[in-house]
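Two records follow; treat each independently.
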Amino acid sequence: MPALILPDRNIIRVDGADAGHFLQNLITANVEAIRQGEARPAALLTPQGKILFDFLISKHGETGYDCDIRADQTADFIRRLTLYKLRAAVKFEQLADVPVIAGWAGDAPHGALRDMRFPQEAHVWRLHGSGAVLDAKRPAWDAVRIAHGVAESGTDFALSDVFPHDVLMDKNAGIDFKKGCYVGQEVVSRMQHRGTARRRVATLTAEADLPAALTESETSILAGDKPVGTLGSVVGKSALAIVRTDRVGDAMAQDSPLTLNGIAVTLTLPDWTGLSFKSDEATTPDP
């Protein structure tokens, strides 16, 4: 049962008589559908539909919700929530002394939350507080995320730069397409209805170990000399990437090699998403 504290994460508690209604009208996830014992992915978007904050949300008590978010985004997140508060009976509290623990495999400790970004068989969980044996290192946790195609802001994408579809939130219940309006909802719903999402998280496998630190110009994945995506988290020969699925599909259809800094790589989409690389050229009818 490997587990570790994630020092770059904080808990923000949103509580009060109006907390559920307040969040339901603000974030992408269906707050009313969150069950005890689970942590669901969610995001607060810009009005243009891009991710402003990404986090995991879970229930706390009768009226509260805990948002598991990047520590360096804590203050900005609270400020943003406060802007939307108006007269709602809701309060925000940073739980600075509560560690965020990630674990996987084996039996989860008492009080753990299932991390809903991962397929159930992966047995990935979160724990807010103590009660787990801490016997894993950060690369092992990143390897679990890479294996299952779970991207996080900061290491895999920049905030305000991607849509929820780009990081698979339409596939892991991070977006609810049936609930009412929330910030950025119109753009996200249009992408879903028209099927225009073409950037997706993929797992990259290289023929040689990848450098742990790369400059921005060195993170571009190429098909020939054409960029098809950008590298994210790296562990050994594996990494996460956000890629244009149509461009990768075209490269595969043409047997064009994919490379990163001259290293041959392969790209796969997470099995649990049901997605596939589709070539625009392959699907274009003959004139």
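The next record belongs to a different protein.
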Amino acid sequence: MNEKEAIQQLENPNTTASLVGDFRNMGIEKGMVLIVHSSLSSLGWVCGGAVAVVSALMEAVGKEGTLIMPAQSADNSDPAEWENPPVPESWWQIIRDEMPAYDPDVTPSRGMGKIADVFRDFPGVSRSSHPVYSFAAWGKHSGYILSEQPLEEGFGSDSPLAKIYELKGSVLLIGVTHESNTSLHFAEHTISNRQKVKKGTAMMEVGNRIWKNYEEILYDSDSFDELGKEFEEKYTIKTSVIGKADCRLMEQRELVDFARRWLQERNEKKGMEE
């Protein structure tokens, strides 16, 4: 959709003020711990673009609240895994030797959307240390949420997602489906006999740039939309159309607890069929 078409679809423009009202009417309150996954284009035309959306979210939760967004840098990974697009095998070692080390102040994110990209660079926003699965956060609990994210189990028990769970945070989806709902990866860590894969990344260690090999569970979001649909059928979530975007607000802990049971049952059923 081009900008002209986006303008024509709205009776009134989305603005920071209108978005604050929309978010509050949906149930977002000051003091909330809120992780957001978003698509700017889904909202239709926004006066001020992603800056207006980030400003509205910050105002909605207030300084006593905490706002979190993904800042993942999937391209700082082993080129042997790359599929979109793949690179020649003869390049793999060159990339491992030359990929710039992860730097939370410099390394761009990939595939997180315009709102998350703009949020990452906002004043007062910090970013976690994981070279692939980082998060950005602002507000009261940002320091705690971003602390001590281990290289292995980047979405696991010591991750920002786990700390959001501990703080009884909420998830807001703006124009995206559960396939983008990173909290479901946290739930994957409780599945028994989860397959592990070898990974690699460029990072700093003791002041030196290195290529670091590590192990991680095999994350798989293919079933997340099916999982999310069943969750929404059984639990009460808040929904709203903001601009042109279908938005969903839910309790992260309730979602993760459901996802753990759902994924474990699915895994056991798959094992029986094999």
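Discussion point: The beta strands are 33-38, 66-70, 126-127, 135-139, 170-174, 196-205, 208-217, 238-242, 245-251. How would you locate this feature using only the token line?
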